Amino acid sequence: MLKVVGIYGSPRKGGNTDLLLDSALKGCEERGNEVKRVYVRDLHIGGCAGCDGCAKNGVCIIKDDMQDIYTLIDDTDVIILSSPIFFYGVTSQLKALIDRSQAMWWRTRARKGSKKEEKNTAKGRGYLIAVGATKGKNLFECAKLTARYFFDALGMSFEGGCFFPGIESIGAIKKHPESLQQAYDLCRK
To answer: Where are the alpha helices (DSSP H) in 45-176?
Structure first.
């Protein structure tokens, strides 16, 4: 049994990325995995202060809802992020959580030592589900890079995900059952 955390990055409740992540997590649960859900829109997470207070021991000095997230993601096997694309990146709510993971990077670095060793000992897997209204060829590139380095900071490997261009209005993903199936299948494999 794997421990799976789904991180809902949309500020909009019940939007397209929520529906897609719900579908993916359903696939995880049906395989008997333990699933926890994090709705970033409901949390109070301040931005990283860039103070390097976490550099000494991997503990962020800012006391807010991120403290619970550190505990949760430190003990998980799989993380699935979901986000609509805002200006070719993830939402500001999700980006705050990602930026505050600098403390986890310091902690991972202290545990693993050299960069070569870090790349060969991923402790889990990470995925990204993203939806964008436009169809630009580079629509998801910034979000993918952000996800890749977030997972790297956690000592996890980035395994890709599901990316859906041309989906704009609330609930429009329901008109694309193959997309919901693709998200479901992401965790079934």
So the answer is: 66-74, 92-99, 102-112, 115-120, 141-153
